[in-house]
Design goal:
alpha/beta; Alkaline Phosphatase, subunit A; four-stranded antiparallel sheet; three-stranded parallel sheet; 15 strands; globular
Length: about 425
Amino acid sequence: MRFDNAYLTTSSCSPSRCSIITGRYPHNTGAPELHVRLPDEQIRFPELLREAGYYTVLSGKNHMFGNQDRAFDQITQGGGPGKSKDWVSHVRKRPQNKPFFFWFASSDAHRPWTISEEAPQYSPDDVVIPPYLVDTQITREDLTGYYHEVSRFDHYVGLVTEELRKQGVLENTMIVVAADNGRPFPRCKSRMYDSGIKTPWVVHYPERIDRPAVSQSLISAIDLSATCLELAGVKRPQCVQGRSFLPMLKDPKATIRGVVFAEHNWHVYRNHERMVRFGDYLYIRNNFPNQPNLCYESDDYYPAGAELWKVHAAGKTKPQQHQLFANPCPPEELFMVSKDPHQLSNLINEAEHQEALEQARSLLSEWTEQTGDTIPGSPTPNRHEPPRIVEGEIIPAGKALDKNPHAEMPGASRNASGINHPGPIEI
């Protein structure tokens, strides 16, 4: 079953993973910013599975805690360019007398790209350029590296699936394939648009899914925890803010929530955005509108981003490519998703959408209050001065000041890490 409206709670690596493994919003985990370790007091749902008799393994990218954690019997580095090489061996060597939970976390697709024989290489001619990027040969070649790494991840998922089949347990194993943030391209990773905050989400579980299907119902990444716990017969603790999506596996038209929320906090640059998605609308509130809304760009690391900067400096970008450079940024944005899948036309001042706007504001305010979200008074500063364009010349990002300059984090002043209210579930 493919879920076409699955959303992350944040499009930033470590806070997204910490959110998924706890079933909590980033500001409720105590680790809402990039490179912040998940606090020991936060319950990880795999630890509850382990206590219930499950054999648990984390292999590959971690970025949540150290190389040992109470949630897992084993934590390994995975091996290979995508940190996926030991996945099959974990499945083969698992204890046969225990149920199992594997958190297989590939570093694909993550920069810098590495090419290997496990996946095909793609032609720049076959690349699909989204409207917010510039169509150049460099951009196309950059995207082929991304395609290659996605395919390498698919390759290893296929090997794991085949091993489960050989062991005769595939039919009774739920496999969830998802990403923890948007792809590392401009207007994707870290952002609140669908290109950043919507995640691919595919579930394979023949025991519950009668036939291949597609669900258009909303789900949140925090719903994975509640789903796995219910499937294992483990009581969901109050700290889990997500809801089980098991009913949707039987009926793809079923719904478990009418609204999803997400947040954008410090990720190299200071930011505080909040998003709510409901009905046909996506609403974003930017509480630091005078802060350039960037993720790091450089010639060597983000070629597609560097191309966009060069074209913009030359005054040749199109309107749909300007948003990245907005400063100040719009404090509010409202989009009708069905008519504007890339979220390029802000409806905030359109009279016919004012009722939806008021509903969005109300939902977000309610969620903010109930979950203890806050705007830091002394927020984490930028890691370095952002790049800028002066008289047609690109002034590159300044030297990094401090890799981990964390200051006051969202929710800290209200002790949000101790709040369990999930906020609105229905509209």
